[in-house]
Amino acid sequence: MPFTNQSPRAVFGRDLIAGVVVFLVALPLCLGIAHASGAPLMSGLISGIVGGLVVGSLSGSHVSVSGPAAGLAAIIAAQLQVLTFEQFLVAVMIAGALQIAFGLWRAGGLANYFPNSVIKGLLVAIGVLLILKQLPHLVGYDRDDEGEMQYAQVDGESTFGALWSAYENLLPGAALVGIVSIVLLLVWENTRLKKLVVPGALVAVVVGTVLSEILSASGSALGIESSHLVQLKVLGSEGTGVRDLLRFPAFGEVFSLDPSPLRDVLIAGVTLAVVASLETLLNLEATNKLDPLRRNAPPNRELIAQGFGNLVAGAIGGLPLTSVIVRSSVNVNAGGKTRVSAIVHGVLLLLSVVALAQLINCIPLSALAAVLVLTGWKLATPRTFVQMWKDGMNQFLPFTVTVLAIVFTDLLIGVLIGLGVSAMFVLVRNLHGGFQVYDEDHVGGSVKRIELANQANFINRAHLASVFEGFAKGESVAIDARRTDYIDPDVMSLIREFVEEDAPARKIRVSTMGFKARYPLDDVIQHVDYTTRELQEKMTPARVLQVLKDGNERFVSGKRLKRDLVRQVDATADGQHPMAIVLTCIDSRAPVELLFDLGIGDVFVARVAGNVARDKIIGSMEFACKVAGSKLIVVVGHTRCGAVKATCDFVAQGVDPAVATGLTNLPAVTSVISEAVRAEPEDGARDGSNLAFVDRVTTRHVHHTIDWIRSHSPTLKQMLDAGEIGIVGGMYDITTGRVEFFEQSAQVPAAH
Questions:
Q1: Are strands 476-480 and 445-452 parallel, antiparallel or unpaired?
Q2: 540 and 531 in contact (C-beta within 8 Å)?
Q3: How large is the angle between the packed helices 8-37 and 365-379, nearest 10 degrees?
Q4: In a domain, 2, yes or no
Q5: What is the pLDDT of residues 22-54, one digit of tens each?
Q6: Which of 420, 451, 486 delimits the end of a domain?
Q7: Are 56 and 342 in contact (CB under 8 A)?
């Protein structure tokens, strides 16, 4: 795995530093979440240790960090109302076993069904909560109403109340440390200092601790009391042993003859498994987006890793754990690149319990709060709101609702509300989706084509029924199911009723196509999308010209008609009745049927270099009009014509094309075009390098060709004079796809 240009040693060093930063962030969170859950404080630390050592070793994510999650605090607190803590540990182990089963059953893809707007809303909401919850600690407000230590306020009820209490109970010394720390972080993040190996978060914590020690040692009134510093039990103090720090599951109580504990424990275990797995998958998806290297962690492996983590945590007295977006984002921001940082943070949490409690107890909570406030700001940056607004209301509204719902309720409820809003948008789109209606102007007349989507569901039925009701008497309707894989029985019943009963009663001609064998509805084509003898006889030259114009407009706009070319092959097998004869250049960029959005059998096409009309071409035109019944002759040149450019060069240089090129028959083309070259005025360059001159020559040559056709075919001239046919020239722009017709010199009668 490449890490830009960093050496393995540099990556490892960066991971060590990131692990330290994550440890410093995780420590108060572990304690605070345990406190908010109503569980022993040590259970939060145990969960953090297991998340780092066990899950960090087994996870497939490079930057995700696991531990006790704020999103589970309310659920844990509710379960501890009916279970003892030891019974609850059994539920944690059951949840772990279920998560392993989820991973083995490959249920990790569930996160792919969560929309991006909800994932981004989750990230922003976590950032907002992080800021709101840490602002009181930033100014030294670290106590709740009962005066107990409050390391990380996590319950939504007191988040906003704590802000006002913090304002009333501001501690100048703690506030000074917090403000200095956050200013240092801002300077570090927005200057060249950011490029240094040591992350700003670590520097801020160290500087904040040193400042706190100086204030206390100097006897200043700004000195910070121990109640506003990190506080841990010191192993060995007052006879405290390792076993005193651990709690063990009460299997005997749970699996006793009394079924009540077992039922409650099973309910708790299933609830924790589902919620913890969902939160892990959501956080993992969010963490993948935070990873600068955009590495995707295997979700099934993550569930298995989390399952083993919860098995171990439950066995030794820890809280249930998940992948945690706060710690993961801190890890990414501190430069963590591999799982080493997560493992290091777990090791440091273990050392903090065993040997470093006294040193860690010197860190001001306000310094840690500064790190978390800036982390929250990075997650909840206003740029995200602006981008979601630009993405449209169907993205912005679910995103905003998710943010607000998480902030004012909790993570799981907020995500579910966000999903509900997203689902509403999907439902509304589907109510008016499932098919598209196109107005098509075929040679045989206007057709309303209903193109069914890949899936036609029952929620599309009401909209489709209203469309059917809106068709007028005598209209032609085509129901196209060629792209459809599934049609709901309710929708199919509506279609059959319209085709077999309603449409005939209202004199509506309905064509059906593409219905699979399992839908007993045969292909029936009642509209005409190719030129028949009857249509040809009814057409006037003006109508044919309009058909060509409309077709070119569809070609330019990318709205070409849907044609069944195979059916047209069958329909024209016994005869053809083209409506026009089109003379154009052999240039590969000027395919006539595409330019005018035509089908098989609609026009004759004569292609020759430079659209030169001489005996054989004129003979073909006479056959097309006099014998085959075509109503319009169209001569189409095109911009940047190679034949015209070459002729301009030959004329400018005064050379014989056959001698200059060795192409003995080339003069048959260039000699005709040269008349237009000599007739076109130009003060500048008169060779192929002057593209504007070349295009004007091409236009003049089209007019010359039309005059030649009139003067050299008595048959066609007689038909033109009688108004039986028309003739028109045009210029095709190869850069835009548009054909400009020269109607000022055209001879196109509107009727016979």
A1: parallel
A2: no
A3: 110
A4: no
A5: 887 787 778 767 766 778 878 889 999 999 999
A6: 420
A7: yes
pLDDT reading at 726 higher than 90: yes
Q: Which of 420, 454, 488 is the last residue of a domain?
A: 420
Cα–Cα distance measured from residue 582 to residue 608, given in angstroms and rounded to the nearest whole number: 11
Name the residue among 438, 443, 494 with its Cα closest to residue 468. Answer: 494
Residue range 139-195, pLDDT digits in tens: 877 654 333 333 333 344 455 666 666 666 777 888 888 889 889 888 887 777 766
Tokens of 185: 């972080």
Distance separating alpha carbons of residues 409 and 19, to the nearest angstrom:
31
Residue 744: φ, ψ to 5°: -65, -25
Instruction: Provide the 8-state DSSP code for 530.
Output: S
Classify the phi-psi angles of 161: left when phi > 0, otherwise alpha if psi is within -120 to 50, otherwise beta: alpha
Q: How many whole angstroms separate alpha carbon 181 and alpha carbon 204? A: 5
Q: Which residue carries 């600068």 as its tokens?
A: 292
585, 702: one domain? yes
Q: Is residue 428 in a domain?
A: no
How many of the other CB atoms lie within 10 Å of CB of 350? 19
Is pTM beyond 0.85 here? no
Whole-angstrom distance, CA of residue 744 vs CA of residue 722: 19
Has residue 430 been placed in a domain? no
Residue 272, CB-side half-sphere exposure with 13 Å CA sphere: 34
Question: What pLDDT is recorded for position 150?
Answer: 37
Identify the three-state secondary structure at position 28. helix
Same domain, 416 and 484: no
Give the count of domains, the chain: 3
Rg, the chain, Cα only = 39
Is the domain of 356 the same as that of 486? no
Residues 6 or more apart whose CB falls under 8 angstroms from that of 601 comprise: 530, 531, 568, 571, 572, 576, 577, 578
> Could you write out the DSSP letters of every residue in 294-349?
-PPPPHHHHHHHHHHHHHHHHHHTPPPEEE-HHHHHHHHHTT--STHHHHHHHHHH
The letter for the amino acid at 262 is: L
The band of 486, judged by pLDDT with boundaries at 50, 70 and 90, is: confident
> Residue 147: which domain range?
8-420
410 and 439 co-located in one domain: no
Are 590 and 457 part of one and the same domain?
A: no
